[in-house]
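ligand=octanoyl-coenzyme A
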Amino acid sequence: MYETIKYEVNGAIATVTVSRPKAMNALNSQVLDELYDAFGEIGENENIRAAILTGEGKAFVAGADIGEMSKLNSVEGRAFGEKGHRTMNRIENLEKPVIAAVNGFALGGGCELAMACDIRIASERAKFGQPEVNLGLIPGFGGNLRLPRLVGKGMAKYMILSAEMIGAEEALRIGLVEKVAAPEELMAEAGKVAETIASKAPIAVSLAKNVINNGYDIDMKSASAYEINAFGIPFSSEDMKEGTSAFLEKRKAEWKNR
Ligand code: CO8
C-alpha cells in the first residue's frame, strides 16, 4: 500500500521505515504524504501504544528532495513547506509517543523529522545538520523553530547558519538526542524504550505528552492552568483506579486504556 515507506506493527509497537535508499531517503511529496497517512493509521489503531521511525540504509533521511525542490517557484515552495509542516505536526501531536531511531544522516528535513519525534536515539554513525544555506534555502519543516527549543538559540544559530554537520556524541552533548547506541544495537535500544513506554498507563502517557507540548510555548500561568486541568482527567479513568489499587495491593497493573 505504501511505496516509499515500510509500515509494520509488532504487538503494541509500530515501526515506520523511510525507504528510498537510493536517494538517501529524501523527503519528496510522496514520502511526506505517506508518512502523514501512516501516522494517521497509528493514531487510529487502538492496539498501538508507541511508534518507532527510522530510515533504510545509510541515511535516516538526508533532507527534503533537492531535485523536486529545484523546480519549484515561491508559491509551490510555500505549499511544499506547508506539506512538510502538516506531516511534522501530525507526528508531534500524535496521541502516542514516537521515537526516532536515527540510523545515519539526518540532514535538513531529516533532522527536522527527527525533531518532530518525542525522543531521539542515535546510532554512533548518525550525523545531524541543517545544511539548507548551502543550497540557498532555509530550514522549512520547522527546523528554525524546533532546533532552538531543543538545543538553545545560540547552538541552533551555529548549526543553521554554518551548515556544520555534527556526530551523535555531539548531538547528545547539546541535547539534540537523548541516547546513543552502537549501530547494531540501535533498533533493539529503540524497541526497549518503546516497550517501556508502551507498558505504562496509555491515557497518562498521552496526556503527559500533550501537556509538555502545549505547555512549552505558553506563559507559565496559562501552562499551569492547562496542567491542572489535564491532571484532573485521569481521575475518572479506570486505569487510574487500577494503577493506584495495584500499587497498594503490591501487584502489577493491567491497563485497559479506559
Ligand atoms: N534530495 C535528493 N536526493 C538526494 C538527497 C536529497 N536531499 N540527498 C542525497 N540524495 C541522492 C544523491 O543525489 C545521490 O543520488 P544519485 O546516486 O542518483 O547521484 C544519492 O542520494 C546518494 O547520495 P551521495 O552520492 O551524495 O551519497 P554520499 O554518501 O556521498 O553523501 C550525503 C551523503 C552527505 C547525505 C549527501 O548526499 C548530501 O549532502 N545530501 C544532501 C543533504 C542536504 O543538503 N540536505 C538538505 C536538503 S534541503 C532541506 O532538507 C530543506 C527542508 C525544508 C524544505 C522546506 C521547503 C519549503
